Amino acid sequence: MKHGGIFIHLKSPKTPQRLELNYYPPGNKFHEKFKQGSELDHLAFWVKDVDGKYAELISKGARKAVEPFKEGRYKLAFLKDPDGIWIELIGFDRRSRR
């Protein structure tokens, strides 16, 4: 990740489902000191139009966390649900697919 975090995907060979594990080292802007029972970091959803889905969810009451941005060939954005859980939207950056 550009901001210094690390991620890996765990995937079952029999399904398309993936579990992403993230690590944010000390000094990273997303780093939090570990505590037993630490809450869920975030849920991610693959969408075709990150900008459109972000705007739609904000209009329905989600709170802004990180506005849409490009990272490599991907477009990402983060929102917070009513309980404060981060929601990630991820999709291909349409301009980089040409």
TL;DR?
The protein has one helix at residues 50-59; strands at 6-11, 18-23, 42-46, 63-71, 74-80, 86-92. The protein is mainly β and 98 residues long.
Please give a structural write-up.
- The protein is mainly beta.
- The protein has two domains: 1-35, no CATH class; 39-98, 2,3-Dihydroxybiphenyl 1,2-Dioxygenase, domain 1.
- The chain has one helix spanning 50-59; strands at 6-11, 18-23, 42-46, 63-71, 74-80, 86-92.
- The protein has a four-stranded mixed sheet with strand order 3-6-5-4, with helices on one face.
- The two termini are 23 Å apart.
- The model has no long low-confidence stretch (mean pLDDT 87).
Structural class determined from secondary elements: mainly beta
CATH level-1 class of the largest domain = Alpha Beta
CATH superfamily of the largest domain: 2,3-Dihydroxybiphenyl 1,2-Dioxygenase, domain 1
Beta strand count: 6
Which fold name fills CATH's third level, the topology of the largest domain? 2,3-Dihydroxybiphenyl 1,2-Dioxygenase, domain 1
List keywords for this structure.
two-stranded antiparallel sheet, 2 domains, 2,3-Dihydroxybiphenyl 1,2-Dioxygenase, domain 1, 98 residues, mainly beta, 4-stranded mixed beta sheet
Topology:
Layout: E1 6-11, E2 18-23, E3 42-46, H1 50-59, E4 63-71, E5 74-80, E6 86-92
Parallel strand pairs: 3-6
Antiparallel strand pairs: 1-2, 4-5, 5-6
